[in-house]
Amino acid sequence: MNPAFSVLIFTTLSGAGYGLLTLVALLRMTDAFPAVRWLGFTSLSLALVLITIGLMASTFHLGHPERAWRALSQWRSSWLSREGVMALVTYMPAGLLWLGWIFWQADNHIMSLLALMSALGAILTVICTGMIYASLKTIPQWHNVWTVPVYLMFALMTGALLCYAISLWFGLPAADGLAVLVLLSLLGAWAVKWSYWQAIDTTPKSSDIRSATGLAAFAEVRLLDPPHTEENFLMKEMGYQVGRKHATKLRRLALLLGGVLPFALTLLAIAAASGPFWIAAVIASLAALSGIAGVFIERWLLFAQAQHKVTLYYGQPTA
Amino acid sequence: MTSLPQNPPAKRLGLVIDLDTCVGCHACVVNCKEWNTGGYPAPLSDLNPYGAAQSGAWLNRVHSFEAVYEDNANAARDGASQSQSRTVHFPKSCLHCQDAACVTVCPTGASYKREEDGIVLVQEDLCIGCGLCSWACPYGAREMDPTGGVMKKCTLCIDRIYNEEIEEAQRQPACVNTCPAKARHFGDLADPDSSVSKLVAERGGMDLMPEMGYRPTNKYLPPRPRRDSYGKQGGANGPLESADPKGGFLGWVDRLLSDD
């Protein structure tokens, strides 16, 4: 599958934003994040900006972005529609939480309820994003049990990295606990991703060129003449090959930037906690940036390594 | 509504495509483009149509495959009959699936399946051009219009088959009408007495990628086994006639013109 830049930006940034929103909301509920104006402004604004940039980017790959609102109508059958609805619904409690926290520094049951609704909305939106891909039977590398956990765990991981950096910048006692969460989510996310890679590498292909053409009575079927001499939409959109060629190297690079480096930097930040606060905070911020860059490469691979069944009609023997 | 029709459509209009008789001439491809670029899904645009890297939206394509029979090696050794291996020309357009995932994934309701005859259509003024329906289709039946930014697909020539302005004999899809080899047939596959259903029953019509579970309406007729006469003396593809005729007029000419 062709990794459209806008879709990679969308799932990476909105994933980090929803992860951060979930954690900040839960930390506010449990008072680990106090109802202090500038903390709320920084953490919630960052989450909402990331989410909004992501959602805006997702409309850039549409043929008619001005009709994007119509995507809210078919939530009964379409995961893409459900995602759009959940994204908008989540803005409501998250926006009210932002207002209450920043303008009134409110700390009451209503705020806790808004925080809970924001966290739930964020998690459900990420699940919907994952299900858009997991529901497509035509792409076996997406249509499996690991796809949704991959999206969820990377959202948690990048959200935790950002949340940890923020807690250090504000010198909050919650930073110690968040450091542990960062390390655990890094391990968890890459364990899930590793399982995903194992699964797609070992699952046998379920279709071949013989079933695609109905010529199962023949021992071997090969494409002799393609139907057109130039690339068409299908070949550009679904026949993408570059990522598969460099898959092993890119997997290592994603793991290095998205896993090993943030893990090492987080340990370094923990060690630097006794020194001036800004040193640890800068290190944790770098860890977050590295983690997001790693997830971006991971997302690119998720597309580039996905082989669509239509490639059977363009010379691939199995899919 | 992008949910599939609650009641299964009473009619299942579709195509039956004969892989035995298709000669791969691409007439159906061209006539489809010609009709539809002025019909329901108009226009089907092309980018750089006369240049080096042209691309555009087409609703019907013909792929050509070589199909190798498993007894190929044995047949060649025995010499009894020539190989069953052959070139198969393979026309492909929307299969108007009964469980059409392209319809259910659509977030806007632009993609829908008609309850009355099962035809899958795109209502273009609702389409946001997200491309998800093309991802959901294993058959490559949908192509994005490069200038319109909306999805295009086979309409089964809905503006021909119900068109009372044209002769009754012409009220079938353009690809069926134009096929010089009569390799494409149009009809109601829900009616067991229709000519297309009978063809499917008679010739063992099959689904493409049945393992996907989309239950395509269109069926494909497999290539027939080669006739026994193939490759034998006197058969259509037998050896050439003898260059040394005995008797008759040709024998007399042969003797006259020979040196001795």
Characterization of this structure:
The complex is a heterodimer of chains A (319) and B (260). Chain A is built from 11 helices and 1 strand; from the N terminus they run αααααααβαααα. Chain A has helices at residues 5-29, 37-60, 79-103, 109-134, 147-169, 175-202, 209-213, 233-238, 242-245, 247-271, 277-304; one strand at residues 220-225. Chain A starts with a helix and ends in a 15-residue tail after the last helix. In chain A, 51% of the residues are buried. In chain B, strand 6 (111-113) and strand 7 form a beta hairpin. Chain B has 260 residues and is of the alpha+beta class. Chain B has helices at 27-36, 72-78, 101-104, 132-136, 158-161, 174-178, 195-203, 248-257, and strands at residues 13-18, 46-47, 55-56, 60-68, 86-93, 111-113, 120-122, 143-144, 151-152, 184-188, 219-221. At the A-B interface, helix 3, helix 7, strand 1 and helix 8 of A face strand 3, strand 4, strand 5, helix 3 and helix 4 of B. Strand 1 of chain A pairs antiparallel with strand 4 (60-68) of chain B, so a sheet runs across the interface.
Key features of this structure:
heterodimer, A: 319 residues, mainly alpha, 11 helices, B: 260 residues, alpha+beta, 3-stranded mixed sheet, two-stranded antiparallel sheet, 8 helices, elongated
Broad shape of chain B: elongated
Most extensive interface, chain pair and sizes: A-B, 58 and 69 residues
Q: What is the structural class of chain B? A: alpha+beta
Largest sheet of chain A: none
Strand order of the largest sheet of chain B: 10-1-11
In total, the number of strands of chain A is 1
End-to-end gap of chain B: 88 Å
The string of secondary-structure elements of chain A, in order, is: HHHHHHHEHHHH
What is the rounded distance between the termini of chain A? 12 Å
The beta-strand count of chain B equals 11
Encode the helix/strand succession of chain B as letters: EHEEEHEHEEHEEHHEHEH
Q: Biggest sheet of chain B, open or closed, and with what strands and sense?
A: 3 strands, mixed
In terms of per-residue confidence, which ranges of chain B show pLDDT below 50 for 5 or more consecutive residues?
Answer: none
As a percent range, the share of strand residues of chain B is: 15-25%
**Strand pairing plus helix content of chain A: what structural class?**
mainly alpha
